[in-house]
Amino acid sequence: MFQDKLDRKSNNIINRVFLKCQELIGIRRNKQVAFYKGTQWFSITDAFARYIVDQRHWVENTFRYTYCCDEVFVQTLLMRSPYSNNRYWLSMDNDSHAIMRLIDWNRGAPYTFRMLDFDEINDSDMLFCRKFDPNVDDTIIHQIQERYS
User: Fold this and answer.
1) What angle do CA 51, 76, 71 make, to 5 degrees?
2) Residues 83, 47 share a domain
3) Same-domain status, 117 and 141
4) Distance CA 89, CA 125 (A)
5) For residue 125, what are the domain limits?
6) Does 21 share its domain with 62?
7) Which of 78, 12, 15, 19 is nearest to 45 (CA)?
8) Quick one: which of 32, 38, 82 has its CA closest to 61?
């Protein structure tokens, strides 16, 4: 826990130093864009997917030299688009209900669900679940297939 806080603090200091160095040599970040972030696991409509592809040049120019842009560019595009109000979950709070996926980051990175988690999965109101591994426990996979097919 202490090491995590120390690592985050060190990373924040290093990031600020690099940003200051970039400013000193003339690199200017886009301050007109409001950036949004979220998970890289999500579902989108065909229309919004086509909108993203149409915005390819803006995405490339805006996010070319960024860190973790896969967790920022889709959300930023969405919030700037005509599709913004079509979101299932209107808050940009990174709640798992926004993506309707059961992902357990507390027990793993992410946790691999097992048969002993079957009731937790069934009791969840999520549409999807991540992750399963047949090498860890294939019984849970077969059980879910049997129940929902």
Assistant:
1) 105
2) yes
3) yes
4) 14
5) 100-148
6) no
7) 78
8) 32
Residue of 11, 1, 149 lying closest to 67 (CA atoms):
11
Per-residue model confidence as pLDDT tens digits over 99-116: 999 999 999 999 999 999
Domain limit, last residue, from 57, 72, 93: 93
Q: Are residues 126 and 86 in the same domain?
A: no
d(CA 115, CA 86): 36
In total, how many domains does the chain have?
A: 3
Helix (H) or strand (E) holding 130: strand 128-130
Non-local CB neighbours of 11 within 8 Å, separated by 6+ positions: none
pTM: 0.71
Q: Of 63, 93, 123, which residue constitutes the final position of a domain?
A: 93
- Half-sphere exposure of residue 5, counting CA atoms within 13 Å on the CB side? 2
